[in-house]
Design goal:
The complex is a heterodimer of chains A (362) and B (258). The model of chain A has no long low-confidence stretch (mean pLDDT 86). With 362 residues, chain A is α/β, with parallel strands linked by helices. In chain A, helix 8 links the parallel strand 6 and strand 7. Chain A has a domain of 220 residues: Rossmann fold (3-Layer(aba) Sandwich). In chain A, the strands form 2 sheets. A 5-stranded parallel sheet of chain A has the order 2-1-3-6-7, with helices on both faces. Helix content of chain A is 42%, strand content 7%. Chain B is built from 9 helices and 2 strands. Chain B is mainly α and 258 residues long. The termini of chain B are far apart. Chain B folds into 2 domains: 81 residues, Fumarate Reductase Cytochrome B subunit (Up-down Bundle); 122 residues, Fumarate Reductase Cytochrome B subunit. Chain B is elongated, with a radius of gyration of 25 Å. In chain B, helix 6 packs across helix 7 and helix 6 runs antiparallel to helix 8. In chain B, strands 1-2 form a two-stranded antiparallel ribbon. Classes of the chains: A alpha/beta (362), B mainly alpha (258). Chains A and B meet through helix 11 and helix 14 of A and helix 4, helix 7 and helix 8 of B.
Chain lengths: 362, 258
C-alpha cells in the first residue's frame, strides 16, 4: 500500500463498469436525499479522492451490524465500502488474525493519524476495569480509547455503540457504556438500530467520504436524513391508525387485513428510523409489513421500556408489571377510599355536634 | 292628582325586616344575614379560567385515555373516510393548545389581577404565620379542631394543593404534551424548536408517553380531592366555596372575629 487508491480505482479493479459506477452514484445521491446535480459531484469525489481509511472495532456486540452491513442492497456499495475497510482493520471480516491483525490496526493508526474514521460496533463494559470484553489480550475499552485518540471522527454503529442495547439493559452488570460516554473529545455520529439498516450504514459512510464531513445530525447525534422522522410518520399502515382500525389479536381478521399494530404494542410512534421508507433486504419488507409491531430497537434503552407488546408500558421503577394505568388507578383508589372515609367521619362528627348543641339548647 | 309617596319609615322598624328581599325571612334568618359578610375575591378572568380549565381537563383526560387505549377497532367506512383516531387526537391537541393559551392568560392575570389571583403560583413557605395555619388546617382535616378558620382566599392546604397539582402539574403536562406533539409536527417545526430539547433529554419518547400518562392520573387525583374538599368546605366551613367560583364573592356564615 504505497499509495492510497481512489474509490473509483478500487471499483474498476473489482470489475465494475463505468456505467454501473454512474448508476451507483445516482442511487447514492437519491438515497442521501440529494438532487441530480450532486451525481457528478459524487462521481468526481469517488474518482479523485483517496479512500478514507476506516478502522472497524468490535466491543460487546452480536455482529448483527456487520451482518446487516454486508447485505447492503446495492451490491456496489457493499463491494466498495467493504473492500475499503477490510483492507485496514475489521477483526470480523479481515483475513488476518491474531498478532498480524493487531499489527495492522497499529499500522493504520500510525499511517493515517488524524485522517481515519473509527467505526465502533458494540460498546465497552467498564466494570472490573473493562475485563468483560477482551480484544487482543487487552480490555476493549483500551483498544477503543487507543484507536479513538487519532481518529478524525467516530461512527457508533447500532444500538450497542449508540445507547448500550441489551448488555446495558437494567441492571447492566458489566456497566456496558455507549461510546459517546467513553470518548468525549471526538465528533461522534450515532447510527442506532439493532441492527441499523444496511443502506443507512453505507449511506452514512458514502456521505462522509463524498463530502468529507459529517452529515447533518439531529439533537441526539443521529444523521438527520435517516433518523429525523418516526416509523409511525411514514408507516404504510398509518391510515388505519387514523381511522381507528387496529389489530386486536395476532390471529384476528384485522391482522389479516393489515390494520395498525398500535394496540399490539407497536413502538413506531416513538421510534426514529428509516425502516418504513428504506425498508430491509433490498426494500422487500420491514417488521410492520410482515405483521409484527416495531420494537423500537433504534431508541435509547428500548429493552427497559417494558413489554414490546403493550402501548402503556410497564414502569420498572414501580415493581414488576405496573404500568401508568395500574399505578394511577391504585393511587386513585386509595385517595377515593380515603375521601369516602373522611366524608363519613365528617358527617358523623357534624351529626354529633348538632345533637350536642340541640341538647344544650333544651 | 294623588301624589305617590313613599310610606314614612317607621324609625323603630328594623330595616332588614322591612326589606322586600327578606320578605319571607324569619327572625332567625334576619339575624343571620346581619352577621354575614362578603368579600369580592375572584375577578372574572380567574373564574372564567377555572371553568374553562376544568372543561378542557375533562376533555383532555377523555381523549388522552383513548389515545393510549383506543376504542375497539371499527369498520364503518373506508379507512380514508373513517377518521376516528384522527378526530380524537385532533380534539386532544386542540384542547391542549387551548389549555396552553388559557394557562398563559392566567399567568398574565396573576401579574395584573388582584392579590388573590396570585395565590395559585406560590407557596409562602417563608411565612411563620402560614405554617401555623397549615398545622391548624391539618388538625381541622384530622378532626382535631372543632371550629375551622375563615379564609378569604385559599386555605394554606388548598394553596399547597393548587400549587403542586395545578401550577406544577399543568406546567408538567404542557411541557411533556408539547414535546410529544413536536414529534408529529416534525423536526424544525415550531413545537420542536420550543420543546425538542425535552425529547433529546429523555432520549426515548416512550418515557415521555409514560410520564404524560402518569401526569393524567396526578390530575385525576387532584380533581377527586379538590371536588371533595370544595363540597365539604362549602357545607362545614364558615365561608362559601362553590358559589365563590361562580360569583367571585366569598360570603361568611358568621361575623365572629376569629
Amino acid at each position: 500500500m504505497s499509495q492510497i487508491e481512489t474509490f473509483y480505482e478500487v471499483m474498476r479493479s473489482q470489475g465494475i463498469t463505468r456505467r454501473s459506477f454512474m448508476k451507483y452514484c445516482s442511487l447514492t445521491a437519491a438515497a442521501l436525499g440529494l438532487g441530480p446535480a450532486f451525481v457528478p459531484k459524487i462521481a468526481h469525489a469517488m474518482e479523485t479522492k483517496p479512500r478514507t481509511p476506516v478502522i472497524w472495532v468490535h466491543g460487546l456486540e452480536c455482529t448483527c451490524c456487520s451482518e446487516s452491513f454486508i447485505r447492503s442492497a446495492h451490491p456496489l456499495a457493499k463491494d466498495v465500502v467493504l473492500s475499503m475497510i477490510s483492507l485496514d482493520y475489521d477483526d470480523t471480516l479481515m483475513a488476518a488474525a491474531g498478532h498480524q491483525a493487531e499489527a495492522a490496526l497499529q499500522d493504520t493508526i500510525d499511517k493515517y493519524k488524524g485522517n481515519y474514521i473509527l467505526a465502533v460496533e458494540g460498546n465497552p463494559p467498564l466494570n472490573e476495569d473493562g475485563m468483560y470484553c477482551i480484544v487482543g489480550g487487552k480490555p476493549f475499552v483500551d483498544q477503543l480509547k487507543h484507536a479513538a485518540e487519532h481518529a478524525k471522527a467516530i461512527i457508533s454503529w447500532g444500538a450497542c455503540a449508540s445507547y448500550g442495547c441489551v448488555q446495558a439493559a437494567k441492571p447492566n452488570p458489566t456497566r456496558a457504556t455507549p461510546v459517546h460516554k467513553v470518548i468525549t473529545d471526538k465528533p461522534i455520529i450515532k447510527v442506532p438500530g439493532c441492527p441499523p439498516i444496511a443502506e443507512v450504514m453505507t449511506g452514512v459512510i458514502t456521505y462522509m467520504l463524498t463530502f468529507d464531513r459529517l452529515p447533518e445530525l439531529d439533537r441526539q447525534g443521529r444523521p438527520a436524513m435517516f433518523y429525523s422522522q418516526r416509523i409511525h410518520d411514514k408507516c404504510y399502515r398509518r391510515p388505519h391508525f387514523d381511522a381507528g382500525q387496529f389489530v386486536e389479536a395476532w390471529d384476528d381478521e384485522n391482522a389479516r387485513k393489515g390494520y395498525c399494530l398500535y394496540k399490539m404494542g407497536c413502538k413506531g410512534p416513538t421510534t426514529y428510523n428509516a425502516c418504513s421508507t428504506v425498508r430491509w433486504n433490498e426494500g422487500v419488507s420491514f417488521p410492520i409489513q410482515s405483521g409484527h409491531g416495531c420494537i423500537g430497537c433504534s431508541e435509547d434503552g428500548f429493552w427497559d421500556q417494558g413489554s414490546f407488546y403493550n402501548r402503556v408500558t410497564d414502569l420498572t421503577q414501580f415493581g414488576v408489571e405496573a404500568n401508568a394505568d395500574k399505578i394511577g388507578m391504585a393511587a386513585a383508589g386509595v385517595v377515593g377510599g380515603g375521601i369516602a372515609l373522611h366524608a363519613a367521619v365528617s358527617a358523623l362528627k357534624s351529626a354529633q355536634k348538632k345533637t350536642q348543641s340541640s341538647k344544650e339548647e333544651v | 292628582m294623588e301624589q305617590k309617596t313613599v310610606p314614612p319609615r317607621d324609625p323603630e322598624a328594623d330595616p332588614l325586616s322591612t326589606s322586600r328581599l327578606t320578605g319571607d325571612a324569619t327572625d332567625q334568618d334576619i339575624e343571620s344575614i346581619r352577621r354575614r359578610t362578603s368579600v369580592f375575591v375572584y375577578e372574572w378572568p380567574v373564574r372564567l379560567w377555572h371553568w374553562i380549565n376544568a372543561a378542557l381537563i375533562m376533555i383532555l383526560i377523555g381523549t388522552g385515555w383513548l389515545i393510549a387505549s383506543p376504542l375497539p377497532s371499527m369498520n364503518f367506512a373506508e379507512a380514508t373516510f373513517q377518521f376516528v383516531m384522527g378526530y380524537n387526537r385532533f380534539i386532544h391537541f386542540a384542547a391542549g393548545q387551548l389549555l396552553t393559551v388559557a394557562f398563559a392568560a392566567r399567568v398574565y392575570w396573576a401579574l395584573v389581577g388582584n392579590h388573590h389571583s396570585k395565590q395559585l403560583f406560590y407557596v409562602p413557605v417563608w411565612k411563620k404565620s402560614w405554617w401555623k395555619e397549615v398545622v391548624h388546617e391539618l388538625r381541622w382535616y384530622a378532626f382535631l379542631e372543632d371550629v375551622p378558620k375563615k379564609y378569604v382566599g385559599h386555605n394554606p392546604l388548598a394553596q399547597v394543593a393548587m400549587f403542586f397539582f395545578m401550577t406544577v402539574g399543568i406546567t408538567f403536562m404542557l411541557l411533556t404534551g408539547w414535546a410529544l406533539y413536536a414529534e408529529g409536527a416534525g423536526q424544525g417545526s415550531l413545537p420542536d424548536l420550543a420543546m425538542g430539547w425535552l425529547i433529546a433529554w429523555v432520549q426515548n419518547t416512550q418515557v415521555l408517553h409514560s410520564l404524560h400518562h402518569l401526569g393524567m392520573w396526578f390530575i385525576i387525583i387532584f380533581m377527586m380531592i379538590h371536588i371533595y374538599a370544595a363540597i365539604r368546605e362549602d357545607i362545614m366551613s364558615r365561608q362559601s366555596m362553590v358559589s365563590t367560583m361562580i360569583s367571585g364573592h366569598r360570603t361568611f356564615k358568621d361575623d365572629l372575629p376569629d
